[in-house]
Design brief:
The protein is mainly alpha-helical. The chain has 2 domains: about 5-65, Winged helix-like DNA-binding domain superfamily/Winged helix DNA-binding domain (Arc Repressor Mutant, subunit A); about 70-130, Diphtheria Toxin Repressor, domain 2, CATH 1.10.60. The protein has helices at about 5-20, 25-35, 40-50, 65-90, 95-105, 110-130, and strands spanning about 55, 60-65. A two-stranded antiparallel sheet has the order 1-2. α1 (about 5-20) crosses α2 and α1 crosses α4. The termini are far apart.
């Protein structure tokens, strides 16, 4: 598993969620939200900036770049699909959510696409059976 990728994606998700709730995000908001050390958040923001996933304004506001936003949306979509798949298999919601949170980072794209297509097909089939 690529822990660095997972860690980066988790930071991007926190920035995305905080920006939706608060409008703007600063490093202290991430520290407060997640309980991380300031130095850890600072290091992570430096890494995310170097990868072109966030920008930091002169006054310290952290913003997702277009690439960063696309990455968050992809991860969120993966989470939704994996959660749905696990719940359809009978996994309790809280457990499905926790497992999906890990799966969203580690399942290869081609496998994810197969799962997503299968769920879409099953939904369409289920809807047509009920009509």
């Amino acid at each position: 598993m690529n822990t660095t990728k997972e860690t980066q994606e988790m930071y991007l998700k926190v920035i995305y969620e905080l920006s939706r709730r608060k409008g703007s995000v600063r490093a202290i908001d991430i520290v407060t939200e997640r309980g991380y050390a300031r130095s850890t958040v600072s290091y992570a923001m430096k890494s995310l900036r170097a990868k072109g996933l966030v920008t930091v304004t002169a006054d310290g506001e952290i913003r997702l770049t277009e690439e960063g936003r696309e990455r968050v949306e992809k991860v969120n979509r993966r989470y939704e699909v994996f959660t749905e798949m696990l719940e359809r298999l009978g996994v309790p919601q809280t457990q499905a959510s926790a497992v999906a949170c890990r799966m969203e980072h580690i399942v290869l794209d081609d496998i994810f696409l197969l799962i997503e297509r299968k769920l879409v097909k099953e939904k369409a089939h289920s809807i047509s059976d009920h009509n």
